[in-house]
Structures are given as C-alpha cells and as structure tokens.
Amino acid sequence: MKKRIKWLLVTVSFYVVSNSFFAMATDQSIAIFIRDDVHYDYTHFLAGRAPQDITDFSGRFIRRDVVDMIIAQQALYLGGFNKTFSYQIGKINFRNTKLLEKGELLISFDSYWYEDAKSLADKVYISDELIRKGEYFAGIFTSPNNKKVFQLQHLSDFNQLTSVSTPRWRTDWKTLSQLPLKDLVAEDEWLSQVRMVSMQWIDFMLMPLMPQMGNQYVLEDIVLQAVPNVLILLDDSRHFVISKRHPDGAQAFKALQKGLKILREQGAIEKAYRQAGFIPELSDQLIINLPLTRKLVQRSFPK
Fold first, then answer.
1. Residue 131 CB neighbours (<10 A)
2. pLDDT at 63
3. Is the pLDDT confidence value at 224 over 90?
4. Which residues form the signal peptide (predicted)?
C-alpha cells in the first residue's frame, strides 16, 4: 500500500509540473514531445515559475535546449497564443520530425538548423532566426579519462581522433566532415552517441556549451567533459519549426513570429543565450575550426 501511495504522489507531482504554463492539463492541451533529460533540467530550472516570467537565464540546470523551450513559449505568449502544453517524455530523437510532418506535433521546442529545416519547408513553417549565423559555438565533449582529446591545440591533432554524429544533422555532420579526423562514425540515436563517447569507443562529440554546469554533461552513470577553452564554430542559424498540417499551425506561427520580433527588439534573445553562457565571451578561447569555415565577424551583444 505504501508503495502505491508513493507512486501516486510522484505521478500527481509530475502531472502538475509538466504543463508549460502551470495550468492543469485538459483535453485542450497541446502535446509536446521532449527528451527526458531535457525535461528534467527544464522543470528544475523553472522551479515552479512560469516560462513567461523568466528574465534571468543564469544558474544551475540551464542549457541550450532549456533556453530554446523558454524562448519559444515566451514568444508564443507575447504573440497572443494562449493554449497550454502538456509534455510527453521519452528518449526522443528524430520522432519529432515525423510527427511535425504528419501534423501530430505543433512545434518542436528544440530549434532546428536552417539546413535541416529548409528540407521540410513544404511541411513546416520556419521561424525567423533564433540563433544567428556566427553565434553558435559547440564544445568538444569527451570522457574525463580521455587524455589525448584534452591535448587538442591544432587542427592537425584531429588526425588521431574519432567523432560521432548523424548525417541527419546536416550542419553538425558537415562541420565534423571538414575536420581531418581519423574516423567519423554515423549514429542516429543521441543516447547511443553519448554512451559511445563515455565508453571511449569514440573520442569526442559536439555538444552545446554548459558553463553553468562546468561544461560537464551528466546523465545517470555517464559523465562527459568539454575540452577547456576550445570551441567549434557551427556556421548556421537555428530556427523554430511549426507544422503546417497541425490545426493550430498557422495561428501559432503568426504568434511566434510576432513574439520573436518583440524579444529580438528588446535584446532578450541575445541576453538569454549570453546569460546562459551559450554565446561565449570570445576572449581567450580557441575556435579551432575557424580556418575551415570563414572569418568570424564579431558583434556587440546586449549583456
């Protein structure tokens, strides 16, 4: 009986926090599919607050995926889209794309590379830029025990290293393909990529910076650490995509665009990603692939 009561309390608690605007989920709620580790950090970062009330994006549990989720909901809210969301949690990777194409998912709160989004342009609306070209820098994440990766200083050092990604992430795959790697392994499942690097079957993978977490990714028994002060420029922009086939698609897209314009004019988007440490202060970091991409144009962002 005690186990049943405990299970019931956990279920009720989860049900309450899973709604994005903290209203009780109803049959009118729009289902959003989200990876379990992202949902964990999202709910812990919010800590009972509504997404539209967040103005400070610093602190524990913040990451690029979490900033994306909050910005998307703030933009929808500012644009007048007031429907609620309920989260369906699991080990989701490319399922979202299929659901968007079918009209069974309204929006992906995880932004898309433009190169990936434009291939879906007949089935989805593509928002204005969320992260602009030249703003996205990834960390080189590896096992804390993989000493040779932490010795990276020059492009030629990649000759002895292996990496993993998927061709379905066009920008990631293109960027890694430009490096003089010993081997680049294709693996579609995110969790499988992480485990391969953790077990040192693969030397490293690219992941968003997580400075609030010491640029360390932790999931259950997995720990990956970014190489200090070494960055990879992923030379593409990121966008939200909304299904054209979803009943609320057109309305949501109009609201999203309106809200993003407001947030952009306020400087709130750049401020959020800077506070989160995702857009780094480019001072003493080495952008190791810059000769392979293009000359970086420095911008002045709101603090």
1. 24
2. 84
3. yes
4. 1-25
**If we measure between CA atoms, which residue out of 18, 23, 135 comes closest to residue 88?**
18
Q: Are 202 and 93 in contact (CB under 8 A)?
A: no
Task: Return d(Cα 39, Cα 250) in angstroms, integer.
Answer: 26
The set of residues, in sequence order, having a beta carbon less than 8 Å from that of 137 and lying 6+ positions away, is 209, 231, 232, 233, 234, 279, 280, 285, 287
Question: Nearest-CA neighbor of 190 among 38, 302, 46?
Answer: 38
Of the candidates 205, 208, 225, the residue with the CA atom closest to the CA atom of residue 147 = 225
Burial of 301 (0-12, 13-18, 19+ CB in 10 A): middle
Give the per-residue SS3 of the chain: CHHHHHHHHHHHHHHHHCECCCCCCCCCCEEEEEEHHHHHHHHHHHCCCCHHHCCCCCCCCCCHHHHHHHHHHHHHHHCCCCCCEEEEEECCCCHHHHHHHHCCCCECCCCEEHHHHHHHCCCEEECCCCECCCCCEEEEEECCCCCCHHHCCCHHHHHHCEEEECCCCHHHHHHHHHCCCCEEEECCCHHHHHHHHHCCCCCEEEEECCHHHCCEEEECCEEEEEEEEEEEECCCCEECEEECCCCCHHHHHHHHHHHHHHHHHHCHHHHHHHHCCCCCCCCCCEECCHHHCCCCCCCCCCC
Taking only the tens place, the pLDDT of each residue in 156-204 is 999 999 999 999 899 999 999 999 999 999 999 888 999 999 999 999 9
Nearest to 136 by CA among 257, 262, 299: 299
CA distances from 104 to 20, 47, 72, 161 (A): 18, 29, 18, 40
What was the pLDDT predicted at 59? 83
